UniProtKB/TrEMBL annotation:
<feature type="domain" description="Transcription regulator PadR N-terminal">
    <location>
        <begin position="44"/>
        <end position="115"/>
    </location>
</feature>
<dbReference type="Pfam" id="PF03551">
    <property type="entry name" value="PadR"/>
</dbReference>
<dbReference type="InterPro" id="IPR005149">
    <property type="entry name" value="Tscrpt_reg_PadR_N"/>
</dbReference>
<dbReference type="InterPro" id="IPR036388">
    <property type="entry name" value="WH-like_DNA-bd_sf"/>
</dbReference>
<protein>
    <submittedName>
        <fullName>Transcriptional regulator, PadR family</fullName>
    </submittedName>
</protein>
<dbReference type="InterPro" id="IPR052509">
    <property type="entry name" value="Metal_resp_DNA-bind_regulator"/>
</dbReference>
<dbReference type="InterPro" id="IPR036390">
    <property type="entry name" value="WH_DNA-bd_sf"/>
</dbReference>
Amino acid sequence: MRVLFCQLLPIDSYLALHYSSDMDADFLANWTTQMRKGLLELCVLATLKGDRMYGYDIAKRLSGVNGLVMGEGTIYPILSRFKKEGLVDTTLVESPEGPARKYYQLTARGRLLLTKMMKAWAEVRDGIETVTVGE
């Protein structure tokens, strides 16, 4: 049997053992992911505030938004949930380029929710700016 001896360290040394710069990177990555998830729904609704669009076009437009980072596989579950919640309607339109395309457009309920979300976002953004100005 092998016995290992360890040197006892002051308590602050033990606390420091659990912290590393990798933890900062992990925390930041997780925080950024959560922030993006919350804002993506707002961005999908805002993208649909004009004309109807099909999923690929929505994904393409949002993929160009700096910092949003998402793909088609992220958009379709959101659109499906929005459809179930009555926020969007869909229309199938034949396409000469291949299969029919499903177009999405906001319902009256979706437009109302988008207006409320935009107001809430503006309040949060303004509040954060009052805290972070000068940082």
